[in-house]
């Protein structure tokens, strides 16, 4: 196991101090009905109640707040939705311009929210968004704040697990969904420091399982043709996040699309947790047979990553 990861726990502590006046300290929820389905106690960190409706605001807020005078040139990013909204709001709070590159097929509700926060939206094809963002940065002089492969972004995301373990310190395990891996990476660093020996899991859709395939192979493998309702988890893990997944995850649990929909519906109906499919991936993993068969786990923390759902396109 390497000792040189992108961030340390001290970076997460610094991020928590920096963003405390700007973010919500989200609640931790429980649900007896979901406990029964899982066969253990579940503690949900409700990041769907975060500003912009997702944990992404933590990382974007930390990265932009940490910038010096270069922030005055503006901020540019590329994202399909939640990070786009997070950067747009964080830039507005810093009184600087945000340029957000979004694929043509992004969730229309998320695109509308980005515009409402005052950002400029640049449309592109999904495969071109990174190149277009670099072009916009070159044309405008704006500072690039990527959605996950950035130390300040990862440190900001880790503050959710920091808060969870401050409130519920005796967890046996913690699980977070994996897209680009920023949330998992921050969660893992925070959890391993605060509760040595805690069992750390990632969760992915089977249709976008690059982290699981990489973990099984023992080396990084790129995402290939992702097909999943969990639109926030279609991204490949990055050069900074993959080593943390490799070194800290006990396993990356994959779930199929019907499981994601079922978990999302359980969360809505049983717990009144109005989460999006990407959040439901972690819930589905904990409710699945493979996780339920694990021994020695009585209390599980679940990071609910977001709740930005297109109500006109619910999966049931």
The SSE string, one letter per element, is: HEHEHEHEHEHEHEHEHHEHHHE
Mean pLDDT: 95
The CATH topology label of the largest domain is Rossmann fold
In helices, the fraction of residues equals: 40-55%
What is the total domain count? 2
Strand order of the largest sheet: 1-2-10-7-8-9
Radius of gyration: 18 Å
Please summarize the sheet with the most strands. 6 strands, mixed
CATH hierarchy: architecture of the largest domain: 3-Layer(aba) Sandwich
Overall spatial form: globular
Number of separate helices: 13
Low-confidence stretches: none
Please state the structural category: alpha/beta
Q: Strand portion, in percent?
A: 15-25%
Distance between the termini: 43 Å
Using the coordinates above, name the CATH class of the largest domain: Alpha Beta
Please provide the count of β strands: 10
Structural write-up:
- The chain is an alpha/beta fold.
- It folds into two domains: 9-54 and 150-313, Rossmann fold; 57-144, Rossmann fold (3-Layer(aba) Sandwich).
- Helix content is 43%, strand content 15%.
- It contains 13 helices and ten strands.
- The protein has helices at residues 9-19, 32-38, 56-65, 82-93, 108-116, 129-140, 151-167, 182-194, 210-217, 242-248, 257-271, 277-287, 289-292, and strands at 28-29, 41-46, 75-78, 98-103, 120-124, 143-144, 173-177, 199-205, 251-255, 299-304.
- It has a six-stranded mixed beta sheet, sandwiched between helices. Strands 5-4-3-6 form a four-stranded parallel beta sheet, with helices on both faces.
- Helix 7 (151-167) crosses helix 8.
- The N and C termini lie far apart (43 Å).
- The mean pLDDT is 95.
């Amino acid at each position: 196991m390497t000792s040189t990861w992108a961030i340390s726990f001290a970076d997460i502590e610094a991020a928590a101090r920096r963003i405390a006046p700007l973010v919500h300290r989200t609640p931790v929820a429980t649900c007896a009905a979901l406990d029964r389905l899982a066969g253990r106690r579940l503690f949900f960190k409700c990041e769907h109640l975060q500003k912009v409706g997702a944990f992404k605001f933590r990382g974007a807020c930390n990265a932009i707040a940490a910038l010096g005078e270069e922030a005055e040139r503006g901020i540019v990013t590329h994202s399909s939705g939640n990070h786009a909204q997070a950067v747009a709001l964080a830039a507005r709070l810093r009184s600087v311009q945000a340029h957000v590159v979004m694929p043509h097929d992004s969730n229309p509700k998320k695109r509308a929210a980005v515009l409402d926060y005052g950002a400029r939206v640049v449309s592109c094809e999904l495969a071109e968004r990174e190149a277009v963002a670099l072009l916009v940065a070159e044309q405008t002089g704006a500072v690039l704040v990527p959605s996950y492969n950035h130390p300040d972004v990862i440190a900001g995301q880790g503050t959710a697990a920091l808060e969870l373990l401050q409130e519920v310190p005796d967890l046996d395990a913690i699980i977070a969904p994996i897209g680009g891996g920023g949330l998992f990476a921050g969660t893992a660093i925070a959890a391993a420091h605060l509760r040595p020996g805690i069992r750390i899991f990632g969760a992915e859709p089977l249709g976008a399982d690059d982290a699981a395939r990489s973990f099984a192979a023992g080396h990084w493998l790129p995402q290939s043709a992702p097909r999943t309702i969990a639109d926030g988890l279609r991204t490949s893990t990055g050069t900074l996040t993959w080593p943390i997944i490799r070194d800290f995850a006990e396993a990356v649990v994959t779930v199929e699309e019907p499981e994601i929909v079922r978990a999302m519906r359980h969360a809505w109906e049983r717990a009144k947790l109005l989460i999006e499919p990407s959040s439901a991936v972690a819930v589905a993993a904990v409710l699945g047979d493979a996780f339920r068969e694990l021994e020695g786990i009585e209390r599980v923390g679940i990071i609910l990553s977001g709740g930005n759902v297109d109500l006109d396109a619910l999966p049931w």
